Structures are given as structure tokens and as C-alpha cells.
Amino acid sequence: MFMGLSLTTGLLWTWEPLPISQLAEAAALGQAIAATPIRLGDVARQLPDQEIAAIAQAMPTGGKPWLLIGEKLSAMSLPILSVEAFLPPETTTREVRRGMRIPLSRSISDQAKPEPWTISAANYPRGRIGSYAQVAVAGRNFDDMQGDQDINRPFVVEGRFEDAELISIVSFIRSIPLMPTARLPIRAGPIHTLVRETAESVTVWTRLDFSSSQIVTLRKEGESWVITATSIRSA
């Protein structure tokens, strides 16, 4: 502990240095804020620095996205660029963090005069300003995402879910459970959307690739979940 004297107030002050672990966490946080956003998807990865800055300026809250996800909407070439911007988390625990996700797009039909980035729900399936959640993979940091198919990705949340319920659903899906009727496991993939249907049922959308998703319907039974239906949907 260090002591000193304020020249303006004449009062003694004390300062106790942070433990090494806390200093490391503070340094890591500062690096994360200063660094460019993590980018997933071919569209997001190809954005130049000036586009990243323009997206940040389009945020309604003035926040700087920590993650951008931008993928082709379909196999067809469209004169539109679309991205999902994930703002810094509003709540964080050891296992779960939550925040705001904002879909944006801009027209590039005129390459000489591309339009500015604007908030747009129309160009994303189920897309709109809304909440995201992230359940960290055990032993990994939230920001540790190693490719488009990393299960550590955050996902859109529609409806109310307590943290414990989020953890139980995500853990169940990540275990690649069997489909009871077919006796086959569901296909592995990161969750991209979680929807509350009723008090006892939820729908989970998982990413198979940039153009297709697996939709899994779950029903609560006791303290666990069972699969009631699955389907595949292509963009």
C-alpha cells in the first residue's frame, strides 16, 4: 500500500495496487475495447476499416460493436451488404453475458455512390433490433471465437429466459442429443437464434452453413429437455 499527500486539500490518501490477476483482466479489457471488432462471415471479414468506422457511426446508442457478423443472404448475388452488430454486453456473469444486437444494411447497386449503413430489419431473417445472449464454452473466454462454426458465438434471444435456463438449453444442444424418433443425433452447429414459444417449449435455430439452419423444437420435462421436432431451412 502506498500513501501520499494531496497538495490541494492537505489530506492523506492511500492507494493499494490491484492483484496481478485483476491487472491482467483490466489490461485485456482495454485491449478488447481498443481493438477492431471480431468479424465472422465472409461479408464482415472483407469490410475495410472505413466501413467498420461507418458502421460504428450508425449505432443508435453511440456504442462500438465488439462483434460483426456478415454473411451472404443466399447463394444469389444481391446489391446489398448486411451485417449484425453486437454492442458491448450490458450484463455479464462467469457463464452468461447479454447485450443488444442491431442489424444493418446498405445498398451497393451503384458502386460509385454506395448508400450509407442504416438499421434494417427487412434484410435479415427474423432480423430486428433485439437482444443477444452468449453462453461461454467451459475453459474459454467469451471473445474466443475460432471461425464461423464456433459454438462459442452469441445468439439472438426472443422472449424471456433466465440465465440458468439459457445454460441448460445451450448445454443440451451442445451435447448433440439424439432425436428420439429417428434415434439419430441432431446436426452439430452454433446456435444463432433462441425463441420462447410457450412456458414449456422453445425453438432453437442452429447454423449449418451460411445459407442453411437446423430448427429444433424442445419441450421441458422435469429438469431436462426433449426434442419434439427438427427441420432444415435454407435461405
Gist of the model:
With 235 residues, the chain is an alpha+beta fold.
Care to describe what's here?
With 235 residues, the protein is α+β, with helices and mostly antiparallel strands. It has one domain. It has four helices and 16 strands. The chain has helices spanning 20-34, 42-45, 49-57, 163-174, and strands spanning 2-5, 12-15, 38-40, 67-69, 80-86, 91-92, 96-107, 118-119, 130-135, 155-158, 178-179, 184-185, 191-196, 201-209, 212-221, 224-234. Mean pLDDT is 80; it is low at 1-34 and 123-127.
Low-confidence segments: 1-34, 123-127
Strand content: 35-45%
Total of DSSP H or I helical runs spanning 4+ residues: 4
Q: What is the gyration radius calculated from CA atoms?
A: 21 Å
How many beta strands in the DSSP annotation? 16
Mean pLDDT value: 80
State the helical fraction: 10-25%
Properties at a glance:
alpha+beta; twelve-stranded mixed beta sheet; disordered N terminus
Please render the helix and strand layout as text.
Layout: E1 2-5, E2 12-15, H1 20-34, E3 38-40, H2 42-45, H3 49-57, E4 67-69, E5 80-86, E6 91-92, E7 96-107, E8 118-119, E9 130-135, E10 155-158, H4 163-174, E11 178-179, E12 184-185, E13 191-196, E14 201-209, E15 212-221, E16 224-234
Parallel strand pairs: 3-4, 10-13
Antiparallel strand pairs: 1-2, 4-5, 5-7, 6-7, 7-8, 7-9, 9-10, 11-12, 13-14, 14-15, 15-16
